[in-house]
Amino acid sequence: EAQVTQNPRYLITVTGKKLTVTCSQNMNHEYMSWYRQDPGLGLRQIYYSMNVEVTDKGDVPEGYKVSRKEKRNFPLILESPSPNQTSLYFCASSFQSGVAYNEQFFGPGTRLTVL
Amino acid sequence: DAKTTQPPSMDCAEGRAANLPCNHSTISGNEYVYWYRQIHSQGPQYIIHGLKNNETNEMASLIITEDRKSSTLILPHATLRDTAVYYCIVRKVYGGATNKLIFGTGTLLAVQP
User: Fold this and answer.
1) Considering only Cβ atoms within 10 Å of each terminal Cβ, which end of chain A, N or C, has fewer?
2) Which among B42, B45, B93 has CB closest to A100?
3) What residue in A sits closest to B32 (Cα-Cα)?
4) Per residue in B70-102, is it b (16+ CB within 10 Å) or e — as a string?
5) Under an 8 Å CB criterion, which residues of B touch A?
């Protein structure tokens, strides 16, 4: 089944404790992206990757890192989480940007709480 | 990308057609209309997209006015599982470097039994 998976689905952590949220897709998509969703602010793009070893900042990259060492995986790293990073996070993937009709597939979401 | 306007909420009776409107009066010629939906806190799900012709797939129909300034998403026989926030997104044919989707506030469709 074609899908985007994220782990963990729920995480409660404390300020400053490094964490990684994994994202994996099995559709051989070149493009992957991370969004966060907050009440009243909608979904905002954090980072994106157009292919292996190619990543770039989205609209709200501060406090986050990403890597793209393999095509299928795109982990989101919070080196020193803070309470303002409490949010619902979504990973998405699609065929390469620049191609029309590039439907994006979203993962199930990771609900992160930073105390 | 052009801005869209949607009603904040709508109700629909189960089994009836749900018609969700979207205004995009500043749409330009190379911009498509996309619809996604988000069922409570799940990941957004693609529904359909179109340029100027009406489109239909297994999930829904999309009707775009001749001047392309507005569109309507039609769920022909709404079920309780269709209760979700529906987002109308206008974007260029090519996603651009970021390929990001700009989600507005959407329409909360509540399907009533």
Assistant:
1) N
2) B93
3) A101
4) bbbbbbeebeeebbbbbbbbbbeeebeebbbbb
5) 32, 41-46, 49, 93-101, 103-105
